[in-house]
Amino acid sequence: MLQWIRSLNIHPFHLTLPVLALYYWIYTGHWLASIFLLAFFILFRRRYDGKRFLCLLGFLSLFALCFAFRIEQGKQESSDYRVPRVIQLLPDTIKVNGDALSFRAKSGSCTFQVFYQLQSEEEQAYFKHLDHGLELRIKGELETPTKQRNFMGFDYQAYLKTQGIYHLLKISHILEKRPAELRDFIGLL
């Protein structure tokens, strides 16, 4: 693709900026990204002749289709979620704050942000010092992350989407803990 861009005498940097603006606009829908995108179109229309400008629009359209496809794929994945019975805890994501435990876990191809209320000090110490993969059999429920509540505030749902996470998993009971086998853990990466 880089050879095509060079053969059309379009500087790669001139393609990068509108692709970033397009990405931000498609994923967030923010008005500022649409203004930047419009500004890039106007500037590039002045800079490039008809053929090169149309090629630039073609490349941007290709990227737009890829981004839209990925969004649609994520929506379909998120609608297929069911509460998993067994999850693989990712040990480097564990956070213990008093009696609140949070971590990321996988079940199949789905990734979850997980929350659990610790039941004892022993359990708290266990998770604080956990440094290996763990498979948990659980009971819990799925929740949708909250969207941005305040103007220009943090959008937790959009942040998790960038990480490939579409639901929160609130664990009510951990029924069984067992160390994850190495082959299970390698499959998560």
Question: Can you tell me about this structure?
Answer:
Strand 2 and strand 3 form a beta hairpin. The model has no long low-confidence stretch (mean pLDDT 84). The protein contains 7 helices and 6 strands, in the order ααααββββαβαβα. Helix 2 runs parallel beside helix 4. With 189 residues, the chain is an alpha+beta fold. The longest helix has 30 residues. The protein is 49% helix and 25% strand.
Sequence stretches where pLDDT stays below 50 over 5 or more residues: none
Q: Per DSSP, what share of the residues sits in E-state strands of 2 or more residues?
A: 25-35%
**Helix percent band:** 40-55%
Separation of the first and last Cα atoms = 29 Å
Q: Kindly report the spatial arrangement of strands forming the biggest sheet.
A: 1-3-4-6-5
Biggest β-sheet description: 5 strands, mixed, barrel
Mean pLDDT: 84
Q: Shape, please?
A: elongated
* H/E element sequence: HHHHEEEEHEHEH
Number of helices: 7
Radius of gyration, in Å, reads: 22 Å
SSE class? alpha+beta
The number of E-state strands comes to 6
Features:
189 residues; alpha+beta; five-stranded mixed barrel; elongated
Compact summary:
Helices cover 49% and strands 25% of the residues. The chain is an alpha+beta fold. Helix 2 (12-28) runs antiparallel to helix 3 and helix 2 (12-28) packs parallel to helix 4.
